[in-house]
Design brief:
The complex is a heterodimer. By secondary structure, chain A is of the alpha/beta class. Chain A contains 13 helices and 17 strands. In chain A, helix 5 links the parallel strand 10 and strand 11. Helix content of chain B is 55%, strand content 0%. Chain B has 13 helices and no strands. Classes of the chains: A alpha/beta, B mainly alpha. Bound molecules: iron/sulfur cluster (2 copies).
């Protein structure tokens, strides 16, 4: 039996696109590039309206430590700098880039290649390359590579679990870029002074395990974990592979681990040594409303609608989800762009909502929650407006994986209650 | 393209619904109920039909008045009616059975706010009411397999409401009654194979166990509860029996009375049992202990009903003190 974490759920896997090689998507006429598509401060725009840019040149610079730079995903002209919509329904500053007709795939470096033996310069190069966690969290990668004084990192963990149903982008990355993943992770190991690299892959991707093993030269440790959701949550992967528990509210670094997604590791190797910036990512397009499902290498900023059209979306599509079905967000605006954190676009013909019933205290949610919370109790507190109760039942530990709502036989939208309660908590002056 | 619809994550839900669970509980109860009908005849059949029918009617009445939520289709009223009927003596007057269902659904369920809100198992509330209001009718037992059981009703069945009941020509005694009042033990195999007098659905322990085990395997009841109840009863009575042979042994305790139905179908009622691991075990052991205490030292031969009702009341407290240990944190 492969290792795993406690509790969790088994949603249907639906990984219909696993066999489909990554195809390059053409350029949309217009790319919409938000300046904040990562966790942390938005990048600062360094271009002007009307300016012509080559694919790969810097267009916005991350000036705070926790931020990430952005590069032109296509050769073209800046058409507009202004407000763009976000999937969450807010507005954010961004750049609209008009693609040049017949623009090619050449990708120009925005800086000279860094000296790989100088850790400072190297981490700086990662920062400027605009790399963020490509698994979905979009946390700037270089921040994880700077170990604060007094801390020690012994393990670089590469996350190839990909536990969300439908998504196969990471799976394809492992099959098609295994050498990049291995060398990217070794670069991380070197700069962090870690002892080992561990790559965790769910047992439904044994072909990826083989590909990585072939590429690894025994320099990295490839381990198989059980197929279970949310195995790809970094805390769960660390628990499964190292038996370490990241403290509540803490980071993997607190237990000596730095985690990066497989696509991130691959991009480190593909971009940083050559002084290139991140301009594209693999996105899974799937769902019953898509005629040509598959994995696409998509320029950042491509409108979701353009991607769906290229993949042949049917007219009676009723629901579009960015990300996976468990944690992804449903959107109504197809102008929204693919960002660095978008791992999938799912389109469905049916959008039936389950009617929710009363909580029958079945305890399924308690037996599902990977954070060992009592979701039903949090929900009751939240519904009664008792924020203190929510905190006592450790609402803050909830990372909204949706396992509880998935199993709930009464179809109670538990995660929505938790999101709302977290928003309300933030509005409270001082939470003790 | 049509307008796209929005919804919060997760966008997948497991196929299991509340109604699916409830109906499976009903199916799992059926073998023991059918055995009750086979061994006690027409009267037993009528009691079950009346209980289920009255429970559904009552649920329908209360629901459309107050909530409209737990509609009949979720099967929970059927469970309540069926469970109540199975814990009644075969000769109980039918009007009492109907009244018991009404109390179970009205007082046990809707007075608390409907499905999911009640503190006590509704079927047990109904039964406790009948036991308190009509102690004589609730302790009149019929031997199984009477030869004319499918030709005629038992004497009690058609009693007019609140009239003085006629006494049965034939009466039996339950194994627990025999033990308590006459110091007679029964054969263990008779207990498990449904050869004794008793409540309609409680005599065939083996069938109850089968239904319960099916639900446990399909994760529609929490196996830890019956295991904790049965384990603690077995251990406590085993020790008592060793010390003083007047106390019954573990197997007798497990096979007799309402223990199996109580442990597998009453204590495990999702709404009224705890959800946290520690509380689940404590709850089961508490029930086991109370059953032994009432059966050994109480004035009644049977204690399963009160044991579970008392334990139901402790659930909020048990859950408060047994929060699961935080991932990566202190308990
Ligand atoms: S969404 Fe939160 S409460 Fe629900 S299972 Fe995930 S971590 Fe637990
Ligand atoms: S899974 Fe749903 S019905 Fe069951 S206890 Fe949790 S919230 Fe209540």
């Amino acid at each position: 039996m492969f290792p795993t974490f406690a509790r969790g759920v088994h949603p249907p896997q639906l990984k219909t696109t696993a066999e489909m090689p990554v195809r390059r998507l053409g350029f949309a006429p217009e790319l919409h590039i938000p300046l904040g598509q990562h966790i942390g401060a938005p990048a600062q725009c360094v271009v002007k309206v009307g300016q012509r840019l080559e694919r790969g040149s810097l267009i916005a610079e991350g000036r705070s430590f926790v931020s990430a730079s952005i590069h032109a995903p296509v050769t073209g002209t800046v058409r507009k700098i202004g407000w763009l919509a976000t999937p969450q329904g807010q507005r954010i500053q961004g750049i609209v880039l008009a693609s040049e007709p017949g623009a090619g795939q050449e990708h120009v470096p925005f800086r000279a290649p860094p000296d790989l033996n100088d850790p400072g310069q190297w981490v700086d190069a990662v920062a400027r390359s605009g790399l963020v966690g490509l698994g979905g969290a979009a946390f700037p990668t270089h921040v994880k590579l700077k170990v604060p004084d007094g801390r020690n990192v012994d393990t670089v963990m590469i996350n190839g679990a990909e536990c969300e149903p439908y998504l196969t982008a990471d799976h394809r990355a492992m099959l098609e870029w295994p050498d990049d993943i291995v060398s990217g992770s070794l670069l991380m190991k070197k700069v962090l002074g870690a002892e080992r690299v561990v790559i965790g892959v769910e047992a439904n991707k044994m072909d990826a395990v083989k590909a990585l093993e072939r590429a690894s030269n025994n320099c990295v440790d490839i381990r198989v974990v059980q197929v279970k959701y949310p195995q790809g949550a970094e805390k769960m992967l660390i628990r499964a592979l190292l038996r370490r528990e990241v403290p509540a509210g803490g980071l993997p670094m607190d237990v000596g681990v730095v985690v990066a997604n497989v696509q991130t590791a691959a991009m480190i190797a593909r971009l940083v040594p050559k002084g290139l910036g991140l301009v594209e990512r693999i996105v899974t397009v799937a769902g019953d409303a898509v005629e040509k499902p598959g994995n696409y290498l998509v320029p950042i900023g491509t409108p979701v609608g353009f991607l769906l059209q290229s993949a042949g979306v049917v007219p009676d599509c009723q629901r579009v989800i960015l990300g996976g079905p468990m944690m992804g967000v449903s959107v109504a605006d197809l102008q929204l762009p693919i960002t660095k954190g978008t791992s999938g676009v799912l389109a469905f013909k049916t959008a039936q909502d389950h009617e929710s019933g009363p909580c029958i205290r079945c305890g399924y949610c308690v037996q599902a929650c990977p954070m060992s919370l009592n979701p039903a109790a949090i929900m009751r507190s939240a519904r009664g407006g008792d924020l203190d109760g929510c905190v006592q039942y450790r609402l803050r530990d909830c990372f909204e994986c949706g396992s509880c709502a998935f199993v709930c036989p009464s179809k109670i939208p538990l995660v929505q209650y938790f999101r709302q309660a977290k928003l309300d908590l933030r509005k409270q002056p001082v939470a003790v | 393209m049509k307008a796209l619809l929005l919804k919060g994550a997760p966008h997948l839900n497991s196929e299991r619904t509340t109604a699916y669970i409830m109906w499976h509980v009903c199916w799992a109860l059926l073998p023991a109920a059918l055995w009750g009908i086979w061994s006690f005849g027409l009267s037993a059949l009528s009691v079950l039909v009346v209980c289920v029918g009255a429970a559904c009617l009552a649920d329908f009445g209360f629901t459309s008045r107050f909530h409209r939520l737990g509609s009949l289709s979720d099967g929970s009223a059927v469970i309540t009616g069926l469970l109540l009927g199975m814990t009644l003596p075969p000769s109980v007057p039918l009007w009492m059975a109907a009244l018991g269902s009404l109390v179970a659904i009205g007082l046990g369920k809707h007075a608390f706010g409907g499905l999911g809100q009640n503190l006590f198992n509704p079927a047990l509330v109904g039964r406790a009411f009948l036991q308190a209001a009509f102690p004589a009718a609730m302790t009149r037992w019929t031997p199984p397999f009477l030869s004319d059981r499918f030709q005629s009703f038992l004497a009690g069945s058609w009693t007019i409401p609140f009239a003085r009941p006629q006494l049965d020509a034939i009466s039996g005694a339950t194994p627990l009654g025999l033990l308590k009042f006459d110091h007679m033990s029964s054969h263990i195999s008779d207990l498990f194979l449904g050869q004794t007098a008793g409540c309609i659905g409680e005599t065939a322990s083996v069938l109850v166990l089968t239904g319960g085990a099916y639900l446990a395997l399909r994760r529609m009841l929490d196996w830890r509860i019956p295991i904790a109840v049965m384990g603690s009863v077995f251990v406590i009575s085993g020790v008592a029996n060793q010390l003083n042979a007047n106390y019954p042994d573990g197997l007798f305790m497990l096979g007799s009375g309402g223990l199996m139905v109580g442990a597998w179908f009453m204590a495990t009622d999702m709404v009224t049992s705890p959800v946290t691991t520690g509380a689940i075990w404590l709850f089961g052991v508490l029930i086991g202990f109370l059953i032994c205490a009432i059966r050994f030292w109480g004035g009644l031969p049977e204690g399963v009903m009160y044991a579970i009702l008392i334990a139901n009341a402790t659930v909020p407290l048990l859950e408060r003190f047994t929060q699961p240990k935080a991932f990566g944190g202190q308990p």
